[in-house]
Structure formats: structure tokens, C-alpha cells
Amino acid sequence: MAVKQTAGRDALGEFAPKFAELNDEVLFGQVWSREDKLSLRDRSLVTVVALMAQGLTDFSFRYHLTAAKNNGITRTEIAEILTHAAFYVGWPKAWAAFRMAKEVWAEDAAEDAKAKHQSEMVFPIGASNDGFAQYFSGKSYLAPLSTAQVDIYNVTFEPGCRNNWHIHHAAKGGGQILVCVAGRGYYQEWGKAPQELHPGDVLNIPPEVKHWHGAAPDCWFSHLAVEVPGEGTSNEWCEPVPEETYKELR
To answer: CA–CA separation, 63 vs 147, rounded Å?
Structure first.
């Protein structure tokens, strides 16, 4: 169902009331609402291409791109629509349209990447790791897999996310085991070079060793975190990994 439009009245109601009326009541109120003749999705497609053909990649183009997304045109489809139209309207206009479309569908791109990462492993990504967010640079997720006998969590890092330097303290036993299950990441101990991680890699982290771990800059990463039982165990969170140091990784 078409959304009732008020943009004309809001912007030009006093200055150009007739134009405002035609915009809100006729264009959007009558033309766009004729869904029995042409769906909102198809009207969005036509409108986006028509504006692109004129090189009108301004706020109105962004509005109609957003409407197209809300009316069901996917990220893959808009890319194909603009690619097809590029041969008829011109390459420079296509470039301008693509730049704006990438911004409008950016959130979908992140969701697509997350879904792809999930498909690569049997363990769930889990919920946003809000309880430990202050100790991470970037967004992470946490899925408890076992809280009996031995605590096991699946920890997932978005691209560029990593935890702060930290230490697992223990009077006896303790430490942590990481089992890499999907994506690509890094692990580093204090004073040593970073170690690239891939699915199947297993790390035994002794207690009292300062370290950090997380995703590669351009890739999602998940590992199982196995908490080794011990006596007098605690975690000490330290400083974040410096951005300039992290950016040296690939």
C-alpha cells in the first residue's frame, strides 16, 4: 500500500500550494497508488531508471532508491538494474547512481556477509556481545554452547573487530583454548608477531600470557573459546590493540 505523501505540503505548502497538492495528492496519491495496474516495486524500478537517465542523482534519487529497497528490490537486483541501464543512459551516470545505491543498500551488504559467514559453520553466531562490548574494538557476537563441566562459547567477530589485550589469571590450571571454526583472524602474544588463523587451527593459551585475538580487517571470523578450569581464575582486560598496529595486518 502506498504511503501517504506529505513532502510537497511540508516543503512548499505555503510557497506553491498547487504544486504541493499535485505532488502529494496526484503523483503519490493517485499515480503511485494504482497498484492494481503496476506494483510499487515496478514503479520504483521505472522511477529509479528514469532519474538515472537524467543524471538526477540528488536527494530525490536517494529517496527513490530507499523506496525501491523498501518495495522489495534487493541489493543484487539494483546492481543488475543499474548495470543494464548503464548501456542506455551512459557510463558516468551509472557511476553516480552506483555510488548512492551502495550507500542505500550498505546494511543489506553487511547482513549478506553475516549470513554467508553463518552458512560456513555449524555453530550459531549468537547475539550481540553487548556485555563485553567495552573490551572490543568493533562488533562481536556470543553464542553459549556449553555452561556445564567446561564453558564453551562461539565468539564471532565482524571484519576489523578484535578484543583488547588481556590476561587469563589462575593460581592453578586455567587459561583458554581457541578452536577456529570459520573465516580468517589473528592471534598475538605480547612481544611476539601476530599469527594468522584459519578454520581448524587450535590455540592453547596458558594463564598469565598477555594476548589478543580477532578478525582480519576484511573478513568475518569465529572461534570456539574453551575456558580451561582452574583455581583462582580471573580475566584482566588491558589496553586496546592500537589502530596503526592492527592496520598493518592483511
So the answer is: 48
- Which amino acid is located at 164 in the chain? N
- Which of 116, 111, 104 has its CA nearest to residue 182? 116
Q: What is the pTM of this model?
A: 0.65
Contact 53, 23 (CB under 8 A): no
**What distance in Å separates the CA atoms of residue 57 and residue 99, rounded to the nearest whole number?**
9
How many angstroms separate the CA atoms of 29 and 153, rounded?
Answer: 53
Which residues, including other chains, have CB under 8 Å from residue 103's CB and lie 6 or more apart?
62
pLDDT along the chain (250 residues), means of 10: 74 90 89 90 95 92 93 93 96 95 85 91 96 97 95 97 98 97 98 97 98 97 97 97 91
**CA 117 to CA 37: how far, in whole Å?**
40
Question: Rounded to an integer, what distance in angstroms lies between the CA atom of residue 16 and that of residue 23?
Answer: 11
CA distances (Å), origin 135, targets 53, 115, 159: 48, 25, 16
According to DSSP, the β-strands at 176-183 and 202-205 are: antiparallel
Residue 193's alpha-carbon distances to 63, 179, 196, 217, 218, in angstroms, are 48, 20, 10, 17, 19
**H or E element at residue 7:** helix 7-12
How far apart are alpha carbons 95 and 76 in whole angstroms?
16
Residues 6+ positions from 72 with CB-CB distance below 8 Å: 40, 41
